[in-house]
Amino acid sequence: MDEPDRRSTTASGNDSDASPEGRPLYERIGGHGALETVVDDLYRRVLADEQLSPFFAGSNLTRVKGRQVEFFAALLGGPVPYAGVSMRTVHRGRGITADHFDSVAGHLADALIAAGLDRELTDDVIGAVALLAGDIATPRESPTPP
After folding, report:
1. Distances (CA, A) of 12 to 2, 35, 83, 87, 123
2. What gap in Å lies between CA 3 and CA 96, rounded to an integer?
3. pLDDT by residue (tens digit) across 86-111?
């Protein structure tokens, strides 16, 4: 039996997660409580989106949201590394396209703005998340030449 692909993820070694003063994005957005608020709003938006909601049919949303908070916290430089299943493994074979990824990123940006983040900080968070597109979305196929 194959062992699930688990990867410890933290953005603390990544220059893009810290401000010039050295504060990680995790702290700049308000920490764990802020992430819980944003993730709750994100999933409210995603579940209201007819293109995205089918991906979550039958999911334990409490668990999904909890894992999402853990992952975002680590990605944004929080104190605890994410040690769950890798994004590539979790999303493999689900038919998630780049358009789906972009829609979720748009909902995330809206949730961040609704939580009171300014555009610059929101863009920094979306920039960190955008680096994961290749692990989450199925690669776009190149058009076949005529």
Report:
1. 30, 17, 14, 18, 18
2. 23
3. 888 888 888 899 999 999 999 999 99
